[in-house]
Amino acid sequence: MKSNLTALIIAKNEEKMIQACLETLSFCQKIILVDNGSSDRTTSIAESYDCQVVSFSHESFAKLREKAHSMVETDWLFYVDADERVSPALAKEILFHIEKDDCQVMTIRRENICYGQQFNFGNWQNDLVTRVFKKENLLSWQGEIHESPLFKGVDIELQHQLIHLTHRNTQDNLRKSADWTIKEATALAAASVKDVNLLTILRKGTMEFYRRAIKYQGHKDGMAGIIEALVQAINRMIVYIQVWELQQKPSIKNKYEKKEQEIKNLWQREGKIRL
Questions:
Q1: pLDDT per residue over 37-67, tens digit each?
Q2: Using CB atoms within 10 A of its CB, is residue 215 exposed (0-12), middle (13-18) or buried (19+)?
Q3: With a threshold of 0.85, does the pTM exceed it?
Q4: Domains and CATH numbers, the chain
């Protein structure tokens, strides 16, 4: 019996993670991978699993998710990230509700594995993602960075969790930070936030660490929880450092261009130097 469900994966340079992800999606009738400009073996691995691969690059995750939505031909769809894994119990629960037809939307709690261990504090325990939809009930996605769905119909929270193998090492964290912090900084700068100064940067980092480690008790996850809270604090400071950059008048780019022109002018006045 066909599941009438399409799994949708949006990926970029995920050759290390995509195969294991695909191996947990055999219960889906079809898998579509929207490739956001990969330069590694992501697409060839997906094609070897008989996935439909669609090349579509965009800065907005909302637009990427909407592109994936437009490709679906089954009645139901399920968004999965390359670093997420579906357990057999979760798969059975999704198929049960599709068969029962008692809802139009399903929200799943994620089990977050950070630095090799499950995080139960630091606000990671409250990580709910709405990922399974009847196609006709998903209206659109909104938000350029932390995108969220607009939908209609009955939304239920599933009992089983989606396993999220995230923040595998600091190097991966820094790469992700380089991608998303500039997007958030650009959005904040466009919203005309107050001029950023040193106090702003330090306050944002301190508050983020307090929120993760103390308020949401991230310290109870041990050293890994404290390090993760610190990493999140650093990320927050990087966002506001970049807001400061974007607020400079003239822009930092223009300052460098001016300096380059000054150097060119020096050489034009000096002429050719003879040995």
A1: 999 999 999 999 989 999 999 988 999 999 9
A2: exposed
A3: yes
A4: 5-165 (3.90.550.10), 170-259 (no CATH)
